[in-house]
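Q: I'm teaching a short session on how sequence maps to structure, and I want students to see two examples side by side rather than one. Could you give me a first protein with its sequence written out and its structure tokens following it? Keep the formatting plain so it prints cleanly on a handout.
A: Of course. Example one:
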Amino acid sequence: MSEWLIGGESATAPLDIKTMLLSLLIAFLAGQTLAWVYMLAHSGLSYSRSFVNSLVIIPVIVSLVMLVLSNNLVTAFGLMAIFAIVRFRNILRDTMDTTYILSVIVVGMAAGTQKYSSAVIGTLLASIILIYLWYTSFGIRHRYDLVLNLHWSRTPADLVELVRVLNRYSFKAQCASQRSHDPDQGIDLSYRLLLRDPNRADELLKDLRALEGASHIMSIKPEDPSET
């Protein structure tokens, strides 16, 4: 097995039906693997079933393109002319989507040029890296669990009661903003909370709603797309 992976770069071998089927099969399995990783690790609003399907079919198509070219310059120019006629545009909302597209294209090129070692090892390595980035939440600066917005109709001196409730449920309660259009009508407050137990967020909101002077209470989790 290890000798096959090391010496699997057989691009100079004559192409036959078995070789073509093997190239397309490896491209399909590589695309399927990366598609499963995408389904597992994706987060946000840009998820699309058609995009997942494209991750499976693109490497097969690219592999077939590389097989058709087969170091033929005339065919390559003809294929470029065809692709110039057939155009499509799609806006990728997530930069990680571009990473998946590039991955399946490169894997398809490797399989289509019969560089099976590169296709298999590249797919496994890319999958491991992508799963690692997802599993470890790499790049997230976790500083708070909840953004809390509310209106306080009592005097600023009475805010100590509100802070007492917040401290009961959080390690850290930072006042991010404080706005007052009319001192007689109260102030609008925004807090960033690092909760002691994120699962008790509902209890916190319940106690705040029962607190005299607190109204228009709204909470936003950091991963919510509406948070800025």
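Q: Perfect. Now a second example for contrast.
A: Example two:
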Amino acid sequence: MYRINIFLIAVLAALASCAPARFVEPLKKGQQVITGNFGGPVAKIPGIGAIPIPFTAVGYGYGVTNKTTIFGNLHTTSLAFGIGQTDLGISQSIWKNDKMGVSAQGTMNIFVDFYTGANRFWPQLDANYYLKYGKHSKPVQLDAMCKIESKHYNFFYAGLSNWFDPYKTESQGRPNAQFWIPSVQLGHQWIRPKWSYQAELKMLAPNQSNQNIVVNYPSMLNNRGALGLYFGITYHLK
């Protein structure tokens, strides 16, 4: 079966992180969720047109405190090609009030090629500002004995994602000239009692050339970077 080895995955990862922003607003203390996301860099596919590369991942998040959330995700598309890809991280509230907030996310991206045993690790640091609107509360019956006030609201967010590549060489032994790979993100989340939803647009790696690589990436910056489009869904366990 055709598979992508870790070095081709690394080329895609080097262009940008293949996932939307994680927990822009940290969870409440004790809150647990299951997450899923779909999408990636928009690529021009012959005979089809420009579509997001269908990267997928499933994950889990837990609110350690009202300001701190830990999370982990398994990238299922990579897994189908024999690559173990995970991202493990923490989201921390920096400042917030009832209408807006600022948060930071630190993540370790881990890649392991199950066929060769090769592995790589990429740290990532994000910062996001979010603005809430449409907030209101309504009672939700969890069970016969427990009723809570659950809030419906939405928020826009904007942020900067920073992917760091500490390796001296890229695939085929080429020197690594891109230690820092930034991306700019704009997104929206719809928060509901049980199911929440996310849509995000990214300007991926605007400091990197998208010429002479395997995939044709359209961009708003001519020959630099790529557009990314992502969708996410969250199920609230608690």
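Q: What should students look for in example two?
A: Point them to this: The CA atoms of residues 164 and 180 lie 5 Å apart. Also worth mentioning: The radius of gyration is 19 Å.
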